[in-house]
Structure formats: C-alpha cells, structure tokens
Amino acid sequence: MGRYFGTDGFRGEANVGLTVDHAFKIGRFLGWYYGQEHHAQVVIGKDTRRSSYMFEYALAAGLTASGADAYLLHVTTTPSVSYVVRTEKFDCGIMVSASHNPYYDNGIKIISGTGSKMDTGVEQKIEDYIDGKMGELPYALRENIGRTVDFYAGRNRYIGHLISIPTRSFKNYKVALDCANGSSSSIAKSVFDALGAQTYVIHNEPDGTNINRDCGSTHIDSLRKYVKENHFDCGFAYDGDADRCLAVDENGNLVDGDQIMYICGKSRDREGKLYQHTIVCTVMSNLGFRQSCEKAGMHTVVTAVGDRNVFEEMQKNGYDLGGEQSGHVIFMKHAMTGDGILTSLMVMGTMIEEKASLGRLASECTILPQVLKNVRVSDKAAAQADPEVQKAVKAAEEALGDNGRILVRESGTEPLIRVMVEAGTTEICNQYVDSVCDVIRKRGFAVED
Predict the structure, then answer these.
(1) N or C: where does the chain have the smaller number of CB atoms within 10 Å of the terminal CB?
(2) 331 forms bridges with which residues in the sheet?
C-alpha cells in the first residue's frame, strides 16, 4: 500500500485524513497526466455522503484547471463509473466514496480507462505530486481550460446494461432490497421493477449522514427480519457504493459472498460456462466453501485479501468468476469490478434457471462456523509484528490443527487488525479470536473507537 492509496483508494475522515486540497491535487494531476497528448475527459461519480459533494467539486476544479473536461454522473454506484469509463472511452474515472465506512469518512477511488482499478504506478505518481516531489504542474489557460458536463445519460446507460443481462423475467418473485441509504438508492429498484419483480425497498432515503448506519451489507439483521416477516422470496443488501452484495434467503438466513460464488459457479459449471471449473477467492473465504467447491467438481484459486488481487488473478489466467466473502463478486463477462446489483441479478437468474429457492441452493454449500473481530489500533504493522501477538497466533494455530484455522491481518482501508477463526463450533472460534485480541489490547496497541 502507498502513503495515501490503500487497497481500495485514498480513504480517511473527511477534512481530516482526506481533505479538499487532496482532492483538488488529484484532479490537477489526472487532468495533466491524461491531457499531455490530447484533450482529457474524466468521469466522476459519488455516493450519498454529505462530504461527497465538496470532494466532487474539488476534483472537478482540479481537472478543469489542468485542461480536462469533467463529466459528472452525480450520485451513482462505483460499478456504474467502471462501466461508463469502459464503454464511453473516458481516460479514467473517479468515484467519491468510502464504501462501507461510516458517513464521516470518505474516499477517492480511481478507475482506469479499461474499467478496472487504477494501476498502482499511477497512484504512486499522484502521491508524489501531493507530497510536492514533482514540482508544480502548469495551469490551462484561455480556451484550454476544461469544462464540467452533467452526464446523467451515462448512469441511464448503465441501468439499461443491467436490465439487458438477465434472460428470464423476475415476474411473481417478491424481492427485498436494502440500499444502505447509499448509491444503489437511485438505481436498484428501477432495475428490479423493469425485470418484473415485486420489489420492496428499505433504507433508500439518504440524508447525507445515514449511509451504512445500521443497514446495508455490513448490518444485515434488519433485512433478514424484513424478508422473514413479510414472506419474501429473497433479499439483497448493498454497501454504500454498491460494489458489494450479500443475500438473504426466504427464511431470513444470510447468504454471503462465498455462498453466492458457489451457487452461481455451480450453475455456470453445469452449463459449461465456468472457465477451467475454477472460482477465484481470497484467504478470507471459508474453508467449508472451498471444500464444497471441490466436492461439486470445481476448483478454487486463493489470493490475498482485496478485490484488486482477485481481479488481477482472474485477468491473468482468464477466469470469469471470483470474489470475496464480504460480497465483492466479479462476473468478468459483464463487469471489470465487483458489482452488487449485478450480483443480485445473477443470483436471481440462477434461482429461476434452477427452479429452486435461494435457501435450497445455499444449503449445498457447507460453511464452517467463523468469527471475525476487529481491534482498532494505533499502529497496524507494529501490532501485527509484535512477538507476543505472534506467539498467541501460533498457539491458536497449534490448538486448532487440521480442524480449523486462524487468520490475522491488517485492514487495507481502516486502522484495524482483523482476527478471524474458523472451527467446528462458534464457541471454539470465539475462544481463539479472543485469545489473540486480548493480547493485542494488553500490549497497548488498541485504541478506543
């Protein structure tokens, strides 16, 4: 990870870790970088956080000051920016969002001209410019100053793209959507309505401060209750910028990213459409998921955490399905990034094709009990490397043996150490997670939330 850009963009508390000056400089650099040989065009989207507006305008100011045109999609999803960049041939795209983080955080994600995450080499150059290592860039003058363009049409084309993907109607299906008071609030219901579903939506009234608050893919309980009480066929929960999706079956049970990949992968494999019978996942994917895939005749390739790593492995070897347990799922035929709404459409399509409930499809994937706890720390690297912490991790590994596993890692987007254990029972998981978390706290690395 760089000084500012982590695994998923430049993220921090608005006007603290991430300021309008940072945004202006990012716009200045990108406008200059892509405008050296032609008139650059960059598309910008944002989520519903109050601070997203000021970052959008700061980015646009920086771009136009360097001579680029800034096309504004306004409130939209991260995958829609990826789609528009790729299909409309923009030089690059920018998404203003901190994804699943609380409203007071924000982030700047940069998307390459191919629709994938920006190359880390370009991010490094941006960091050098922010730190004053490149000197000043020239301002555009007179007729060369850039302009801003309202580009709602781009978002509408993305909606049309989503509607065109399913091959069967969703008629007679009752579907609940949790929009996390975020980006999907302006898109998801219209897509499901157009496909014939009876669509019921919760948490789709963003006010600038309620994004992800007790809702969406990181707070799934309200959707589980909503689906079960109203006897819906299924439900889908997105995160703040809608690049993630988790599902809920007809009984209110969670269907996570691993199970979604299993369900869609098995159906695609049966049709001969899963390249080399392989799904790409990360080290966070449940051991039971991998075992279920092997039992069903599929293989798994495991990468480090982060959808960037999943995408790179897929691109390098031609795989067409991969993702994370958290709900970032990439269907390479249709998108170059995780797309929550697309994922929900693919799950619906599989249910209809297999003539089966989501609960039955998910039951075929056996998931081991898993507990994940986060410890907010002052220094992620120091906490991870501490000898006493390492000793506690080793002790847990030896105790679990072949009947489970422990994974301790630094968050790529927040000042957190994540401790995860899989084992035969939730009680065993909690025992070993707590044993490591307690040592992190006793060693003085933990800070108050």
Answers:
(1) C
(2) 321
